[in-house]
Amino acid sequence: MYCNKFLNRALALALVATLVTACGGGGGGDSTPVSVTPEAPSAPVVQPVPAAANVSQLTVDAGPSGTGYNVNRLYTTVKVCSPDSTQCKTIEHVLVDTGSFGVRLLASAMDPTLNLKQSTGANGSPLLNCAKFVDDSFAWGPVVKADVVMGGMTAASVPIQVIADPAFNGLAAACSVGGTAITNATVLGANGILGIGLFKEDCGERCNQIVNNGSYYTCTDANCTATTGAKTSIAQQVKNPVPLFASDSNGVLIDLPGVSAAGAPSLNGSLIFGIGTQPNNRWTPGAVLTTDSVGYVTTLLAGQNLPSSFTNSFFDSGSNGLFFDSTITKCGTSADGFYCPTSPVNLSATLVGANRATSAISFSVDKATDLFAGGVNHVLPTLAGGIGDIPGHPSTFDWGLPFFYGRRVFFGIEGQASMLGTGPFYAF
Fold it and tell me: ∠238-243-246 over CA atoms, to 5°?
């Protein structure tokens, strides 16, 4: 599955689309973010320190209004602008996903007056992108060029995907294969996806060389009534915007505070760009795990009569739980896909990089239906579930957002040099 690069990179998104909808209960509605960081005691008023340019604020909260009960969703704000123009649109509640690559924004969250220039295939017709996920959901829409702004950082003229553009929805059958379309914020639980993981493009050389690659299409006639597969150069592919920054472009750091096992209504943190480029992204002693060519490390899980070795392991802020197959009791239909042990299960694991570096991890799995009770807490550090039977990848461990709580997790981007080496690697 990882052989075409994008499908496995999109694994995290598939789990989000499948599993969060299984949370059940609760409602959407507006929610005021509440930081779990203790407030400082009263003190004389001081002038605030300006936010660093290489920082974009993060939050885990209820998500876009009216989209149901969202849990362990990591959001940021992204501004997109028409290149060489002052026309911009600021989009809140964009899902931060280190398991995929590229900016994908819902058409319903965009401003049509931006008039972003469409990318075209070799025949001059619009270039269309298909992102398929393992739960049979998919994102379909045209590729356009936009300046992408996060914090004080700008990536110029980035190919991004506009999801569910009504002008092209009638052509989605080329992508669906009977799957479920991501068409709005209720389906996605966000207004878009910010894919900022280990790799620079969503498909890579495969789509540069193969016509029927399953990711890129173009129209077969002037009226765009049908599509055909299209080779797509690296330059045209939907891209991770971080390597396109003028500075602080060699990786990202997700910095989230810890939270108690009981969870919390919301949480605030930071998405910091660059590794070792600024005082706020310096490395402190820890583990640096290089990956194989497709972004995997190995998880060795101890005890509980569980499968012990997960060679296809990755760290994914876009997944709302820790996902791995085990003998832990599963929930019923009220929380399908999640684990529901009768009491918390404490586990330990050793993570092993391609460089043979190791790191010991301890974590707990609690009863999902209890965690979801009342629909109040959106930050759930003990949420976990089964990953299912993924063809060709029976040994997958998805370290989703609960792994990130209380850690500073670095992602070294492929081919980018840093004080920790050249990516791809994970460090924490």
Answer: 125
